[in-house]
Amino acid sequence: MSATTSTAPSLDALAQIAVAAGVEIMRIYATDFAPHAKGDGSPVTLADEAAEAIISERLQAVSGLPIVAEEAVSSGHVPQKSDVFFLVDPLDGTKEFVSRNGEFTVNIALVEDGRPVMGVVLAPALGVLYAGDRFGAWRARTETLGAREALQVRAAPGAVKVVASRSHLTDETRQFVERFTVDSFVSSGSSLKFCQVAEGAADLYPRLGRTMEWDTAAGDAVLRAAGGQVLTMDGAALTYGKCWPGEVGDTFANPHFVACGTLDPFVSS
């Protein structure tokens, strides 16, 4: 069943929802919290669960659209298939949260017909929010959301700045990067890597490892709005809502991908 976009909230509304979740995350971050393992062995904390509850409640209040959220899905709660829906990762980078390095994010994205058309990425410990929709991408401090700085990917250079996963750096990723003339290689956590490409701090983010759609949709939306792209290894745009429960395939799992600005990631420099 397809939902309509008539009840889609504004980008400002998504930003405010993310900030509210971030406040609760930081409250828990200041405590002596302890993670526990989910069924797949990945860590989860009270912050993941509390943030998702806030986001889901507030999204329901401003929109009747379906919500596909990480912790709900892991508990078996998935909405009916829709062409328009939210993808939510309430705390992307739980390992970063547990290690207290600050590189964790709140991700909220609106997907229409397989494309992330609106998204916000909040880094609550860093006090910065990234956002993007069809009108463009911007960045703001969380205490002054009205003071916004427009984002634009930088022109493709001769030597590229590469950003890659801090916790999930694979040999395949290293081999892919070796095809390029590399100016710098930096490891970073969570969906901040998309935002670093969107703001021109990096040119290339290859991810040749397992990710889920809620990990990437919000950052993808910001990057697309800033003039970048996220491509699968066959050069096609990364899509969302690929495999709902009951369909053939790994439910809500992404293929390997490369996020980039104006650089063609399949022509080595």
Topology:
Elements: H1 11-29, E1 36-37, E2 43-44, H2 46-62, E3 67-69, H3 70-74, E4 84-92, H4 94-99, E5 105-112, E6 115-123, E7 128-133, E8 136-141, E9 149-151, E10 160-165, H5 171-177, E11 182-188, H6 192-198, E12 204-207, H7 213-225, E13 229-232, E14 257-260
Question: Can you give a write-up of this model?
Answer:
The protein is α+β, with helices and mostly antiparallel strands. 28% of the residues lie in helices and 27% in strands. It is built from seven helices and 14 strands. The strands form four sheets. Strands 3-4-5-6-7-8-9 form a seven-stranded mixed beta sheet, with helices on both faces. Helix 1 packs antiparallel against helix 2 (46-62) and helix 6 runs parallel beside helix 7. The longest helix has 19 residues, at 11-29. The relative contact order is 0.14.
Kindly list the characteristics that best describe this protein.
269 residues, three-stranded antiparallel sheet, single chain, D-Maltodextrin-Binding Protein, domain 2, 2 domains, disordered N terminus, 7 helices, 28% helix, Fructose-1,6-Bisphosphatase, Chain A, domain 1, globular, alpha+beta
